[in-house]
Design a protein that fits this description.
The protein is of the alpha/beta class. It is 25% helix and 25% strand.
Amino acid sequence: MAKEKTIFFCKECGYELSKWQGQCPGCHEWNTLVEAPSGGRGKRTPPAPARGGSAAAGSPPTKINEIETQEECRRETGMKELDRVLGGGIVPGSLILVGGDPGIGKSTLLLQTCRLLAAKKMKVLYVSGEESARQIKMRAERIGSFTDDLYLYSETCMGTILRAVEELSPEVIIVDSIQTVFEEGIDAAPGSVSQVREITGTLLHLAKSRNITIFIVGHVTKEGNVAGPRMLEHMVDTVLYFEGDKTAMYRMLRGVKNRFGSTNEVGVFEMRGRGLAEVPNPSEYMMQGRLENEAGSVVVCTMEGSRPFLIEVQALVCQTSFPMPRRTAVGTDYNRVNLLMAVLEKRLGIRLGDCDAYVNVAGGMRVVEPALDLALVAALFSSHHGRVLGSGTVLFGEVGLVGEVRAVSQAERRVAEAVKTGYDTCILPESNRRSILQAGNLDLSGMKLVGVKHIRELLEYFA
């Protein structure tokens, strides 16, 4: 009898190898390769028959000018922050992948979405391979009341799930998670590359043929990427990442791929005892609890996609008691902080080589865009010299190695957000200031624009 062939795949990233080795070539993690049978694709369970969707099986090719589109085909979920990221709502026949760290709130977000959709008389099927129906019910009770249009199903066999879909005919399906579902005809463990690829293909065909919106939850690796083959993200229509620190209040839903809308939108949520609450005005929430006229504290206007946020940047600079000074950065790039401290030393003559420096972006958000540079420089200088920037001042700009302040993108949106929030002074790159004044699109009554070309010009605005 011929020996059955096997392959090895990485539990973290899904990379496949013909033989075992200690380190995965894909994600460079150690001891993550496990053995699984390689062959034996059995008879695949066929998807349920189509019910007249736009991509119905057997339909002939159609000229693009003969295809009619409808504005009302996009359905709002009732959760405005989710609709914003999706481009206005869910599209029937779409396959949406939701990824995020364990415990971040993916299942809670989707369960709340199910509640709102069921309240609109849409039939929703929630398939869980990780929890029993009773466990989901216990979690749902703290969110609120549900209608009878939401059906819970605890199952991991794809063939059984397809038969349930054929009997129930739901309009929306949630699969939590894709790594727990398996196809009986494939001789591989659930979560393996072969299983994930096959299950995703089956769900994609089901969504297109029956015009069903399907959400699938994906586990993530240590690097924050969806586990499994990279092909998974290419196969789906939309990829959403639910981000945030589990110890912080705020969560961000970010779209990294969207065939039906923009990927420049983010949704902000706050984790509460009764689930996730939407944050319609993040700038106002981020500024709550901020102490004014404190050295080392400044406000920056940063962009997440096309959405402006006002965020507090804090810095603490003090003499070190260690042989080597300590440098810590929370919420931003550590190496960027060291670079800007070197610019301060060289261009302004401020001695920081014998000082500890601690930088924090308040609110639990992570910001890495270049427009944060000017705020970091201002916070470090303010803390070191004990001088305060005006309480009504917001600033942004990129800082180069020679101390120049460079222009940043979407400056007009940033200034508009500062005006809306009630700030009266905005320090920004001089080139951005000229562009805003020349355009004349903003009502700047009560707002003073201060343009700077070099970081030394920033010092005169500290009290």
